[in-house]
Design brief:
The chain has helices spanning about 110-115, 130-135, 155-170, and strands at about 5-10, 30-35, 40-45, 60-65, 75-85, 95-100, 100-105, 125-130, 140-145, 150, 205, 210. The chain is of the alpha+beta class.
Length: about 210
């Protein structure tokens, strides 16, 4: 099962990364945050793959970013990250193997610049096209290696990728409440008030927008 949660982050938290928002996302969770100061939205999926022995592999995130609360047009790319966590001397490596036949390398930027120092840990970051995301989400088996640890995604994680693809291709990926249109009174011709989007306190989650 995966869930979607909407978060509004105020100016005091503008320098905080999405990975620091509380409560922390779980495996398969799709979260959305709107950064008031930056006027930018992020929608991201968190995956927590396991190694063949059942040990934890680096967490993966797939993130869509766009200006404002609603995208101006269809997305062209997303950002994929692998977080080192407590791994000692992680290798600069991130790739996926789809259905045991198609390899997707996600490390070209990291090979040039290395891991990025960040919070909550150092990470490898690579942009991928929406077409590549479609190929990944459509695979029946996904194995790979992240920072030197091999893993295989579970069925629920593959389904979460499909749900994330559906979200980023929608006209409201952050699931922000829409403004009600202004209207004219038939009797007087005067304009009515416009309802603004509902917002919660800074950095406190609203009720989940959808749980499926």
């Amino acid at each position: 099962m995966y869930c979607t949660m909407l978060v509004i982050a105020g100016a005091l938290f503008a320098s905080v990364t999405a990975g620091q928002l509380l409560p922390p996302p779980g495996d398969g969770d799709i979260r959305a945050v709107y950064w008031e100061l930056r006027k930018e939205s992020e929608v991201w999926l968190t995956l927590e793959p396991k190694t063949a022995k059942g040990d934890r592999a680096p967490h993966l995130t797939f993130t869509l970013r766009f200006a404002g609360q609603w995208p101006a047009g269809p997305p062209t790319e997303i950002d994929v990250r692998a977080y080192a966590g407590a791994i000692w001397a992680p290798r600069v490596e991130l790739w996926l193997l789809l259905d045991e036949s198609q390899r997707v390398d996600l490390e070209s930027r990291a090979k040039a610049f290395g891991l990025i120092s960040g919070t909550p840990s150092d990470y490898l970051s690579e942009p991928i096209s929406i077409d590549t995301l479609r190929q990944i989400a459509g695979a029946h088996r996904i194995t790979g290696s992240a920072l030197g640890l091999d893993f295989e995604l579970s069925e629920s994680q593959r389904l979460a990728l499909g749900a994330f693809l559906e979200r980023v291709l929608s006209d409201n990926p952050a699931q922000q409440p829409r403004r009600q249109p202004e209207f004219a009174s038939p009797a007087s011709g005067s304009r009515g008030a416009t309802t603004a989007p509902v917002r919660g306190p800074a950095n406190r989650p609203l009720q989940p927008a959808a749980v499926r």
